[in-house]
Amino acid sequence: MAFLKASSPHGHAANSTNQFMRLVMLATLPGVAALTYFFGFGTLVNIAWACLVAISCEALVLAIRKRPIAFYLKDGSALVTAILLAIALPPYAPWWMILIGTAFAIIVCKQLYGGMGYNPFNPAMAAYVLLLISLPVQMTSWAAPVSLLHSPVPDLWQAFQLNFGLITPVDGLTMATPLDVMKQNNGLDMQELWAANGQLGAFGGLGWEWVNLGFLLGGLYLLYKKVFTWHAPVSMLAALALMSVIFYDGGSSNSGGSPLFHLFSGATMFAAFFIITDPITSAVSIRGRLIYGALIGLMVYIIRTWGNYPDAFAFSVLLMNFAAPFIDTVSQPRVYGHAARNKQ
């Protein structure tokens, strides 16, 4: 029998983690560009401040643990965590809220478990849930699309001042998200709801359709670069679409929204390609990834439609992080030769 000549499973390039992290950061650019175009410069300020806090917290904990600071900072994992959390937070979020969330993600959710590779929960999503439960008003104050603002759109310097409380926000700078509008719908069918709300676009949220397309483009780039496999994101999107097809009744007031609305509103594509594909906290077997992604999609629809939160990716991801070891246990592939031995 001929065997392929391949390196052992532990063989790897010293900078492979850094390369993967750089690819992830690069892939977020289309989605971040769309967020900036439709919702202003607040997201860029979020990212810059979160990255500074993340590097500082990582260096501080590494120094306390007497670990080589430069070596671990070079892997880029702290920056990726900061960027993902900053993208998930509302633009123009208060500086202290970003500080609390980022510090919690790096110090508590990552370093206290031993650093990258040891954390059982996605740090960015754990920090997001902490902020959402503790500061619901600030976390639900999402920026209005710039096309709906009655005042001039804040430039980059004004966005910085808004984030750090140096100027007072103007009226109408924030409004309900399209998922909030859908959840709070009282008696209007889908056609009437679209006519009555300017923040709803062609088939999803105004601007959110392009934001999701941007993160879809970045996700496809990561798939092309083989940063992760297709199993978890595709199964998540398929489960979410299937649930919305099953419960979409043609657009009555009881409808939870069309499949296109759920796929291209909120954080759907961002979560599918940048959150649930985290190799540390997700299932690792192929069958396990399919189950893991499908269960996240199922829970997202349930919470969006019948739960208390308009978007539910953070809660769904954390619950599946908790279940990932069990999913891997029950989805392990059969040992080679096992069936044949049982027949003897």
TrEMBL record:
It is an enzyme of class 7 (translocase). The modification FMN phosphoryl threonine is found at residue 177. Its cofactor is FMN. It is a multi-pass membrane protein. The chain crosses the membrane at residues 71-89, 95-113, 125-144, 200-223, 230-248, 260-277, 289-306. Its EC number is 7.-.-.-. One of its GO terms (biological process) is electron transport chain. It is found in: Cell inner membrane. It holds the Pfam family NQR2_RnfD_RnfE. Keywords: Cell inner membrane, Cell membrane, Electron transport, Flavoprotein, FMN, Membrane, Phosphoprotein, Translocase, Transmembrane, Transmembrane helix, Transport. InterPro entries: NqrB/RnfD, RnfD_bac. One of its GO terms (cellular component) is plasma membrane. The keyword Methyltransferase does not apply. HAMAP family: RsxD_RnfD. Part of a membrane-bound complex that couples electron transfer with translocation of ions across the membrane. Belongs to the NqrB/RnfD family. The complex is composed of six subunits: RnfA, RnfB, RnfC, RnfD, RnfE and RnfG. This is Ion-translocating oxidoreductase complex subunit D. It comes from Sinobacterium caligoides.
